[in-house]
UniProtKB/TrEMBL annotation:
<dbReference type="GO" id="GO:0008175">
    <property type="term" value="F:tRNA methyltransferase activity"/>
</dbReference>
<dbReference type="InterPro" id="IPR056744">
    <property type="entry name" value="TRM5/TYW2-like_N"/>
</dbReference>
<dbReference type="Pfam" id="PF25133">
    <property type="entry name" value="TYW2_N_2"/>
</dbReference>
<dbReference type="InterPro" id="IPR056743">
    <property type="entry name" value="TRM5-TYW2-like_MTfase"/>
</dbReference>
<keyword id="KW-0963">Cytoplasm</keyword>
<dbReference type="Pfam" id="PF02475">
    <property type="entry name" value="TRM5-TYW2_MTfase"/>
</dbReference>
<protein>
    <submittedName>
        <fullName>Methyltransferase</fullName>
    </submittedName>
</protein>
<dbReference type="GO" id="GO:0005737">
    <property type="term" value="C:cytoplasm"/>
</dbReference>
<keyword id="KW-0949">S-adenosyl-L-methionine</keyword>
<dbReference type="InterPro" id="IPR040601">
    <property type="entry name" value="Trm5a/b_N"/>
</dbReference>
<keyword id="KW-0819">tRNA processing</keyword>
<dbReference type="InterPro" id="IPR029063">
    <property type="entry name" value="SAM-dependent_MTases_sf"/>
</dbReference>
<keyword id="KW-0489">Methyltransferase</keyword>
<dbReference type="InterPro" id="IPR030382">
    <property type="entry name" value="MeTrfase_TRM5/TYW2"/>
</dbReference>
<dbReference type="GO" id="GO:0002939">
    <property type="term" value="P:tRNA N1-guanine methylation"/>
</dbReference>
<feature type="domain" description="SAM-dependent methyltransferase TRM5/TYW2-type">
    <location>
        <begin position="79"/>
        <end position="325"/>
    </location>
</feature>
<dbReference type="Pfam" id="PF18093">
    <property type="entry name" value="Trm5_N"/>
</dbReference>
Amino acid sequence: MKVPCVRVAREDGERTREALAERDLLDHDHEITVAEGWLYAPIVDPDAIPEEYTIEERDVPDRETQTMPADLLGFDPSYERLGDIVLLREDDTERARQVANAVMDSSIPTKTVLNRASKVEGEFRTREWDVLAGESTETVHREYGYAFALDVATVYFSPRLATERHRVVQQAAADERIVDMFAGVGPFAIPFAGRGAAVIAVDRNPVAIEYLRENVRRNDVDERVEAIEGDVREVATEIEDGVDRLVMNLPHSADQFLDTAIDLAGEDCVLHYYDIQHENDPYGPGERAIRAAAEEYEVTVETRHTVRSYAPHELNVCLDVRLRA
């Protein structure tokens, strides 16, 4: 039986598979195949495929049934995958171990299962983990064609923000100069550089900066990313000339860094400002703070975007703001 497939060069296969999977467009009932240098990825909705891809009807084999944790447990557990690590958020210790055992016995390629043991806290926004299976908290996570080495015990990283990062990265042009003020291991900075932008990536966490430098090399963007360890408020004086784009992904306290952002901004600059606020007024506090800090600029809010629900009645939001001198 012929099914619609996206056809791409084999070397672009993994990046394409990740992009289609992120949009829930992969047909999981049929196998991805390779023939004569082309990779064929079965899809479920041809009309939703971006125009950049070629669609071709092709005979592909049915996919063998995989054993998932729900098949072994009798209920559908909640978990996140980060590279070959599976992350749980279970309050009951016995249930957590039961889920971990099912994950390890399932078809999911997993080397470690971790359960959250604390909230995100501390200067570097890390959390404690209970290791339920395996040993290492280090992994390599792949996202929209890029690979990020990281250790979940020592750096902050959320796989749930992949779509949001992609949304922002797609706005950047190749000739831009960008500052990522809280760069982490590089999930914004490296894709920006992959689009041809020149990126200055700053973070206070020395472990995150080491992973960032490793990831810059891993993704072949060495010449376009400068990694700086330190508080962006202190290193901003080292960044000369105004920049075209700023990312402020520190939602609990980004407002404390707005004066620095304004100092870094060029005559025409886009600011991606992340915030967490009550659902009754999720955008107002951030917008008022930006306007107060940017008195010398014409401020235009181009996008008010809800990223996700953060807690009961609280939203994680982003303001895409253009500053014109």
